[in-house]
Give the backbone structure.
Amino acid sequence: MFQHLLIAIDGSPDGETALRQGFGLAKALSAKVTVATVTEPWTEAAYATLSTPSLVEIYETSAAGNAAVVLDRAKEATEQAGIECVWHIKDQHAPQRHQGSTG
Amino acid sequence: MYKHILIATDGSELAGKAVAAGFDLARQLGAQVTVVTVTEPWTAFVTSETTFGFPVDEYEKTANESASRILSGASKLARKADIQCATVHAKDQFPAEGILETANKNHCDLIVMASHGRRGLGRLLLGSQAVRVLTHSTVPVLICR
């Protein structure tokens, strides 16, 4: 049956529900878990008129910060549930390209 | 975890995968299973040209036969896998509504179904009835493909 579950979260209450359901299922099935949170490319989060390199950096720092917060919270839940978990921040950025085109 | 799994099937090959996955899951979780198959209302099934040659009672007879064939197949598999399994034929409904109503009535806490039905043709990433169930369900849905 299922041996490896991917749980996608974004820090929202619905994400918490998915996390709880996923952990419950993983435990019952003795499956491995990967928890992922995705941050969007900078171009989707910002307006073109704001595209200066410094803002890209600020966005990236705060996106990374948010992802860390989301995953840290999930980590606590994982430890409580006693589940082996692979941590995975999926970052869809292409920073070089953005900086190159905006600099 | 899940205690009562609803598995929806229309007897297609893809739905067979959903049945197999649902049974597997039920066995591992020690859950009971209800298998549902839905047959549509006669008016949705026929076009006006075929109405004359295909009266209501004939349609119902065919629908009943096909449903009981599908359900007895699932029961047999359940017996083999040693799973407690009930079957439901939801009549005169569109698939998604029939599935959701059956899940509701039986207090199922997980719905397992295929991504496409018989007429899904695979053109879409997700068939229309799967989308409807996902949209309206209050319990988790496992879509098999």
Q: What stands out?
A: Helices of chain A lie at 13-29, 42-45, 53-81, 95-102. Chain A touches chain B through eight residues (CB under 8 Å). Residues 94-103 of chain A have pLDDT under 50 and may be disordered. Chain A has one domain: 4-102.
